[in-house]
Task: structure prediction
Amino acid sequence: MVDGPLAIRMQRLKAAREGSTGREIITLPLLAARLAGGFVAPVATDNLYPAIQAALAAGGFRDLGRVSSLPGMPRAVLQSLTAIWRADIDLSSLPQHVGRFADLCLLETRIRERLPASRMLPRDLRDAAQARSSFCGSLLGPVTLEGIVEIDAVWRPLLNEIARFTELSWNVPAPTEEQAWFKGAIRRQPATPPATFSAETSADPKSEVVEALRWVRRLLSSGKANAEDIGIAATSTTDWDDHFLAYANSAGLPLHFSHGIPALSTPDGQACAALADVLTTGLSQERIWRLIRRLPPRPFAGALSKDWFAGIPRGAGLRTLEQWREALIAARSHRADDMAAEDALLPILELLARGPEAGEEAGRLLLSGASLAMWNEALRSAPPHAVSLSLQAMRVRDGRDPANSVVWCPASHLAASPRPFTRLLGLTSRSWPRLENDDPLIPHHLLDRQTLHGLTTADRDRRHFEVICSGTREHLILSRPQRNAKGSILSPSALYPANELVHKRDRIPEHAFSEADRLLARPRDAGALEHVRQSQSCWRDWQWDEKLTRHDGSVAADHPAILAALARTQSTTSLQRLLRDPLGYVWRYALGWRSIRLEGEPLQLDPIAFGELVHELIAGAITRLEPMPSFARANADEIEAAIAGASSKVLASWPLQRSVPPAILWQHTVKEAARRTAKGLACDDPTRADTRSWSEVPFGQEMRTGGEWPWDETVKVPIEQAGLLFGGRIDRLDIRASGDGAQITDYKSIKPPPKSQRITLGQGRELQRVLYAMAVRILLPEIRTIVTRLIYLADEPAKFELKGDDLDAAVAEANTYLVAAVQILRSGRIAPRSEQDAVYDDMRLALPADRESYLRRKATDFRAASQKLGKLWYSSK
Result:
């Protein structure tokens, strides 16, 4: 008989190597089940959790009624009852006038009634086995307890009964206390101190893991030890688990977690987590994508058509079942089988939309194998709405065999099966030994801790420490961190020796545990790698060279990639970036870099998206009024009705195209956009009744849209001096019926810049209306008078106009700066722009972390490279 998962597997290996055909390795509960007979087995959590949940749901409690429905209650009840059963305490013998004891007694009775006949509680199983102890001679034969440090009180009477009818011996690991209650033969193992002993200090738990794996690699590579001879342990493994899991996998080391790895670190666990996220948080396109990508092929994911997502905008939020239904209907023409995806997906979405209560059915329809077993276990241990918490605490086997692996485990596991080479982690005053905590339902003032647990946690940790030390024959290392993961200073444990070796975080190790660790320790080897040489060269150019270098933006003159970017049809956005940030233009349009947009589920639209919303409402309102009754002749009520119609359309259409705020906030956002739209359209001067208005007027497009426009929308507008072609969409265009006058309007949903008496190019930000004027002059040469307006809609609308000589000067100035920007790009001397007033730079990650110091250090050469645009950037107009 052994105790713990590590001991049972190592003893089975030992029996196999010795060829002991008749030997069976079991635990105390399994031994009791064998004596009890009748296909009886110890009760496990798959039976206990449903029974506990049913017992709690029945109600009728005196003290636990207010908390019986809380998510963590099944786990707390199991923990408390397990302590009661292990201590061999009869709940009915405790004072029943104490409400807590009466409730626990009631729970135990209900649990017993709901268990299958083949599953028995520990005390019931012990009594059933004890009644048949006379058969143990033929059923068991000689019994040996191997490596067991402490035996729970519930099993002691059974062992003494077994000693009456068969040979019973206990190989007690040294040093342990006298076991006066035990009536079998006790064989004390001699205490053998390790051949070598040392103590080491590291910076934090992560550094402890690094040093431990370096030690493992040194032992394995030197041939001093096999993997099965090495053990690493701590009293509680939580602080080190994630680091061991990541580093051991990257290093390819055979590391076995005897206590299991976190379920969420496995693909099956991630499938369960994705399902829990959808059920508890609600539908969204991102969550459904995540779920379908992680589901096992059977029973659902493999049957779903491969083009189920075709035609659905990836930016759409899709947070309701109705939105999913509309999106799938709209995308039918993009799928090979237009109905297959709807027939398969909509019933599942309808089920998921029901929320956590549909968890069991959803698991059965979407999961299989290990993922389904994991999901069912999570539902058993917690209510459906708390299944995510249950999954976080769940652990599963790692698939390795301790017979050919280094073991990482709790100290209790290693004490039951010591190894010749041992390393103990976390020897701080908080961990070795740990502090005693109250039972969740039976605090110390109700029942003495020693009565409930026998040994205190501190005494048990000390005993495990002593057993491990005496069982380590070759090399024992004690390790402690100086600080915890949050940076707090930790004091050493009372078990930690005075003499220690301090490992600095940046030290050069004797033996690296992985390729990355080796390169970090040997800079000369790392420097031989091409990508490392490139990064070092970049750092030197950034940090020490005050000139414009190839890592700052300098390229060959007339570089083919830049010429190709300039030859494409430009948009007003790309031309604005060309003027404002030539290097950013190269990154975006020559190299094709794109920043990742982390939209998630916004609570409000960002300024760019809100501006697009206002523009769409303006376009929708004007479209509804043209050609009849026409915007120029419409009264206030007609304009208000047009804005309301456009708002209704946007309310329904945007959630099918992009991520928007939750429903109530989304309605408020559209109302605010409609308010600004109404103010913007109402701020116009009286317009002649024969004026025709258009919105979002395209030009320079690749294909015809089929709309009624004042020109051919496929014609591209040239900027001859700069050698550029551009196209775009004009926010609003008004043309007199006589065809001799036009008014261009560019709307901004924000406030005007502070202290702005006049805005022309706005340092390159307000280039659109000037470009639109250039386009109208070329596309409609018969128009003699052009007025271009810039209207800011936030608060009270502010209007800035350009016409006549001012407009001509602005067009000439824009042409001059565009020519200068093209010359800078073609010259190859392209420098980052120091923009102090930028609210957000989506290419910020491509520049050094200390951007301000970097720009200040190279300011002279950067300013010289961008001299032709300096007047624009620092102008107040």
